[in-house]
What we know:
alpha/beta; D-Maltodextrin-Binding Protein, domain 2; five-stranded mixed sheet; 23% helix
Amino acid sequence: xxxxxxxxxxxxxxxxxxxxxxxxxxxxxxxxxxxxxxxxxxxxxxxxxxxxxxxxxxxxxxxxxxxxxxxxxxxxxxxxxxxxxxxxxxxxxxxxxxxxxxxxxxxxxxxxxxxxxxxxxxxxxxxxxxxxxxxxxxxxx
Length: 141
């Protein structure tokens, strides 16, 4: 049985305060594997091309991407949720939404209504490590 929890989230690009690669007219970003990242990457590549910059994107595991961006190995990330930069002091949010996502809950042999994160509290859930939206909203459940 499939139960759907729909939460629309604006994904944002994060850029660090240091802009060493910007002087070279290339923005080096960390990205993650997946369709949402692919769509967001296309948006960023086109937007930066309009202002004369090239974009280089390195695909990394989700958790590693944010850590390495925060350490300055990349100029930022292709996308993260709004507010995420508070936990990573070397990253600055660029307040321009580039994508939206929906979170979906799938179950087997169980049917229940999901209207928010708290509805998942009594259940064990599985999700990809590093998906901060789910991590933050289910912490302690």
